[in-house]
From TrEMBL:
This is Valine--pyruvate aminotransferase. CDD domains: AAT_like. It comes from Didymosphaeria variabile. Residues 385-398 have a biased composition (Polar residues). One of its GO terms (molecular function) is pyridoxal phosphate binding.
């Protein structure tokens, strides 16, 4: 793992084995990280980049943590919003008389962070965006300032290809940007700089789910050696041993032989890349002319499973999702399911005009038809809207002339 990750991410120094812990997948390890590194009283909030991977919400909830949404713009997380809100959260804490002492016992292999920040910085599920290098660096600095642990699900990083719809060579064996955990390692003296506690402020959650098979229930996480050791000491892992011995053994063999890497670069990237090209070409001919919008259209490299689409103005995702299913047998996900529960008041944290679409599942030759069917639904709604507007302006005109008459 260490040498494959080093080859792929090209960090400033090679990745050592001590920085890696084998996990039971990104979901299971998110729970482990929260068990070891948070406390329900001392940890003030989980700051979640919205729209967010919705199945993470319950994992945070299980650890009794308070969720807050942070909007994204075209560069990724809105740093200034996050800074203001964390500052306010800390001011509120200072106003409380009893302090916020942890209720969990302190252990030598762990620490309780004051804040958690959760993001999917590369080819995000669901927003499809990639956070820029500048934002990644700003986020690391902010996390250091406020004792936050940034947990990133880096689960789509290997599924990447050139964004150009005419690209022929769809395989890329080097990461597009350093992960946040790589940046934490080198920025301003790095995570293990003098005077720091050595745990660092970021951890990368990786997974074999998307590159070898979800049922394997195996992943890895990377952080400082101190943090990786802390994860390995989670109670359930210590009792059972590693979370995923058998599957991890098989995976170890296919990484050592290079078969997994070949599968990723020679099978997955070209197949998903071709699906992406067909999907986006259809979106450009069918949906963009209707007023729909795609995020970050100027990237050189894209990837992942999903595309986030902002619907034309006046069209609600709830209606599109229902009609697409009922009338066209097309399944897309409604934007609202990716809203952070309990924190949807601020602009950019609610998504009733957006949908998430998956291009990775269906065969290459049916994807364009799926988009054509979706376009039919949207066009139908726009026609109804125009009829409605025509009717209401006629009513308005009648009313106005009636008022004039009286
Ligand atoms: C952002 C994100 N995190 C985590 C997961 C789940 O990963 P795993 O199967 O490794 O638990 C997914 C899969 O859908 C995902 O999209």
């Amino acid at each position: 793992m260490a040498s494959w990750l080093t080859n792929f991410y090209q960090p400033t120094a090679p990745i050592s084995e001590e920085r890696i812990a084998v996990t039971g997948g990104a979901s299971q390890n998110l729970a482990c990280l929260l068990q070891v590194f948070t406390d329900p009283v001392h940890t003030r909030n989980v700051w979640i980049v919205a729209p967010a991977y919705m199945l993470a919400f319950r994992i945070f909830d299980d650890s009794a943590l308070k969720l807050r949404a942070v909007p994204e713009d075209e560069e990724g997380i809105d740093i200034e919003y996050l800074r203001t809100e964390i500052r306010e959260s800390e001011a509120k804490a200072r106003a409380q008389p009893n302090g916020e002492q942890p209720i969990k016992p302190q252990r030598p292999w762990s620490k309780f962070y004051r804040h958690i920040i959760y993001a999917v910085p590369t080819f995000s599920n669901p927003s499809f965006k990639t956070m820029t290098l500048k934002r990644r660096e700003q986020l690391v600095r902010l996390a250091r300032e406020y004792d936050a642990l940034i947990i990133t699900d880096d689960v789509y990083d290997f599924l990447q290809w050139p964004a150009s719809l005419t690209a022929k060579h769809l395989s890329l064996d080097k990461a597009v940007l350093p992960r946040i955990v790589d940046i934490d390692r080198y920025l301003d003296g790095g995570a293990e700089r003098e005077g720091a506690d050595g745990f660092g402020n970021s951890v990368s959650n990786g997974s074999f789910s998307k590159i070898a098979g979800p049922g394997l229930r195996t992943g890895w996480c990377e952080g400082t050696s101190k943090l990786a050791f802390g994860v390995s000491q989670t109670g359930s892992s210590r009792s059972g041993g590693a979370p995923s011995q058998l599957a991890a053994t098989f995976l170890g063999e296919i990484i050592e032989s290079g078969d997994l890497q070949r599968h990723v670069y020679e099978v997955l990237q070209p197949s998903y890349g071709r699906r992406y090209q067909k999907f986006v070409r259809a979106i450009e001919t069918e949906l963009i002319p209707l007023g729909a919008r795609l995020p970050q259209t100027d990237r050189d490299v894209v990837g992942g499973y999903f595309i986030w689409l902002t619907l034309p103005d006046g069209i609600k995702s709830i209606t599109v999702v229902q009609r697409a299913k009922e009338e066209e047998n097309v399944v897309v996900a409604q934007g609202e399911i990716f809203q952070v529960p309990g924190d949807t008041d601020h602009a950019g944290t609610h998504f009733e005009q957006d949908i998430r679409m998956c291009f990775a599942w269906e065969d290459e030759d049916v994807l364009a038809e799926g988009i054509e069917r979706l376009a039919r639904v949207i066009r139908g709604l726009q026609n109804e809207q125009q009829d409605g507007e025509a009717q209401s302006s006629m009513q308005h005109a009648t009313k106005a002339s009636a008022e004039e008459f009286w």
